[in-house]
Structures are given as C-alpha cells and as structure tokens.
Amino acid sequence: MFRLIKASNSVRSSPLKNQLKPAAKLISLRQAGTSATQRFSPPVQRLQRPRRSWGRIFLATTGVISLTGFALWYTIFPHHPYSSDVAKELRKALHAELDRPSSPVDYQLALKHYIQAIDLCDEEGLDILSDAYTGIQLKIGEMYERLGLPAEALLTYSSIASTYLAALTTPGRIDDKDRAHYIQKDLRVVVKCVELNGRDVKGCMMLLMTHFIVAQSEVRRRSIEADQLIHSEEAHIENDLSVTKDGRLKKCPEAWTPFRDELFNARDLYVALCLSSGNLSDAVRTKIATTEWMLHADCPPGEILLSQCNLGAIMYLQAEEFEVREFSGVKGGNEELRLEGKAGKERCLSLSQECYESVLSFAKNLPYELRRGDMAVEESIALSTYGLGVIKLHIGDFTSAKNLLRESRLRAKGAGFDDLVTEAERELKKLNQEEETHGGSLENKDRIEQLLQASEQGMGEVPIEMDIQLTKHSATATSATPTPAPAPTTSSK
C-alpha cells in the first residue's frame, strides 16, 4: 500500500508532468481571453416589431370603403334634377338619336319623347328658367332643325329667349350672382334665332339690340370705366379709331365675363345686318364701339386686330357710298351733291386708311412670340396690307397699290390665308392687264374721271374693280379664321 502511494507521488513529480504544465497554462490563457472577449463585446440589438396603430388602420379602411361606395353610387345611381318619369322619356329620346346597326337614327321619335318630357316637367312645376328645363327645350329645337322644320325651331328658340328676357328685366327674379350665367345663355339663343330668321332684317336688328342692351347694362353695373365707354356709344359720341391707345385704356375683363364672346358676337351680327340693310352709319358706330370695348375687355390681340380690319372695310364701303353721290352730282350738274359726296368720300377713305395703319402699328409693337403664336395677328397684318393696297388702287396710286398687294400676297401665303392670296392675285392680274393696255405704265387718274369715262363709253364696269375684305367675329374667340367676302363694287351700284 505504501509503495503504491509512493509510486503515484512519483508519477506526479515525473518529467511528463513538467512537460504538460506549459500546455495546460496555454489552454487556460486561451479560455481566459475568450471569456474576456465575450465580456467586453457590445450587446446584439434585436429588431422589434412595431406596435400596431389600430386607429390608423381603422381610418385607412374607412376611407377606402367610403371612396369605393361613393364611386359605386356615382356610377350606378342617377343624379339629375328630373323625376323618374321625365328621366325615362329622356333616355328613350337619347336612344332614338343613337345611330346603331340594330336601330338607325329616328329624330321624329326623339322629338316625340322630348315633347312628352317637357309636358311632364310642366305638370311637375319645374322652373322654366332652370338649365334642366331649357336644356330639353333646346333639344326640341335641335330636333326640329334636323327634321328640316326651321319655323318650328325658331318658335322654340324664340320662346326661350322671351323667357330669359322677361326674367332679366324683372327685378328680383334672378339673383345678382346668377345674372351673368343667364345673360350668356340668352345671347346664345338670340344669335340662333337671328340665324334662322335672316330674312327679317329689321326684326332681327331690333331683337339683337334689345338683348345685348341688357348685357351692356350688366357690364355698366360692374365697372365705372365700362359705364363711361358704353355711355359714349349710346350718346353717339365719336371715338378714336386707333387701336394704339391700348396702353392708355384701363382694362377690366371681370366686368365682361362670362358672356364677353357672346356679346361681341351678337354686336358683330348686328353690324352685318346693318350692312345688308344699307345702314352704314350705324354699322360704323357700332363697330367702333365694339373694337374699343374689346380693348377694355382684354380680348386676345388677334381678335382686336381683326375687328379693326373689319372697321376699316366698313369705312371703305361708306366711302364708296359717298362716291356714288359725288358721281351723281357730277353727272347731274348738282354741285352741292358733288361737294357733299366728295367730302364724305375723302373722310371715309382717310378713316379707313387710319384703321389699317393702326393695325400695322399695333402689331409691330407686339412681342415676336405672341405674333407667331397667334395666327389671327398675322392674318390681320395681311388683311390690313391688302386693304391699304385697295385704297391706293382706288385713289389712283397704282405703284404703291401694286407693292402693297404683292406684300399682302406674301404675308397671306406665310399665314396660310389662301382666300386672301386668291384675292390679291386677282387684283394684281387686273393691274397687269391695265399696264399692258397702256403700254407698260399706268397713269394716276381720279376715280370720278374713270367712272365718267366708263359711263361715256357705255361700259358695264370700271376698268379696275375694288374689292375689300370683311370678316366676322367668332363666338369661340380664340381660333376663327377670317374668310374674305368681296363687297359691292361702285360699278354695281
């Protein structure tokens, strides 16, 4: 027993034990280092799920459900001021207007349903001024037009216009905030009535004047500046014919909205009726005022310049009328009539030239981008150049006339104004023919001498006819292309 214990002690103190001590120490150091690293390493941050916001989820869900419900309601359920019976008739009328392979267009059937719908509206007491009621009336008028019944269509439109006029002239019938809307609709219907009843010139002139005076009264109520302008026109105060005073005129477009285009279109239609009836003095006065009002209403420059071109054309026509008086005085030996006609002719030609020159001066001061962006500006320049050429041709200044006509042809080609190109080429062709007749040159002659020579020779027309261009202001106001129309020549009178 003693030996075994001793032997074990001897093993512990043997050289093998001494060899194992460094290894054991190294292992203990590694373990100590590992534990130290673990002790000083930063803690690992674990991602935590955000807490749910049940309030936001509820609001989002409620919003989606509300929008979906509103879309379904707007799509499926009807939302109009008509009752179910009236809506049923209107749907039948609209279906009759559709051109489908199974059922072609039937305007007669559509008219029947529209009339039944308006009868139901009368029974239900729908306001005759409401857009719902007048909308059905307008469709009835349209159906009459499509069926080739203009008299019935005119009767329908006249009924609407009378209703509007009675309401606009009755104090308290229409709220002030709604008057502009009804004036706009009234002017549109009145213009339609005039288009369908063009034969009754006097009646149409009175109709237009009655209705656009109501519109002008509304403008005067809105603006002091406009009140003064309209008073000058109604008092027959002579105004400046130049459009170059644009910078001196205070603009107030709010006074003319939203019926600005409808009012100016109605006044231009009145001018056309004045011309057709031979009332040139009223045509001139109305056109002068309209052009000045367009400046105050801040209309696009192209529309203002085209209106000024029309004014120049009207003044030229009045000059031709005075020339007829002068010619009659010379031929009949009436010196007083001759002098009166000559003075009136010279004044009107001077005013016409002033109109065209003011257009060119006004357009020259416009920015280049505006001139190129608005084709009406380029067209007005071409028209004014052509008008000046016609005036020079009329007074016998053939050299200047030829240069101006060539320039107008060039400008008209650049603006795509094909009708004016044709007119300019026609006048140049006449000038060339006259040059060939007179041996390559034209002498400046007084216009009355030309008329007397033509009368003595028994010629049906003078050697050179004078044509002038008139354009009509469009209700769309932004993009109408003027179409030239030859005016009556002196020889035709």
TrEMBL record:
<keyword id="KW-1133">Transmembrane helix</keyword>
<keyword id="KW-0472">Membrane</keyword>
<feature type="compositionally biased region" description="Low complexity">
    <location>
        <begin position="474"/>
        <end position="493"/>
    </location>
</feature>
<feature type="transmembrane region" description="Helical">
    <location>
        <begin position="57"/>
        <end position="76"/>
    </location>
</feature>
<protein>
    <recommendedName>
        <fullName>Mitochondrial inner membrane i-AAA protease supercomplex subunit MGR3</fullName>
    </recommendedName>
</protein>
<feature type="region of interest" description="Disordered">
    <location>
        <begin position="455"/>
        <end position="493"/>
    </location>
</feature>
<dbReference type="InterPro" id="IPR040201">
    <property type="entry name" value="Mrg3-like"/>
</dbReference>
<keyword id="KW-0812">Transmembrane</keyword>
<dbReference type="GO" id="GO:0006515">
    <property type="term" value="P:protein quality control for misfolded or incompletely synthesized proteins"/>
</dbReference>
<dbReference type="GO" id="GO:0031942">
    <property type="term" value="C:i-AAA complex"/>
</dbReference>
<dbReference type="GO" id="GO:0051787">
    <property type="term" value="F:misfolded protein binding"/>
</dbReference>
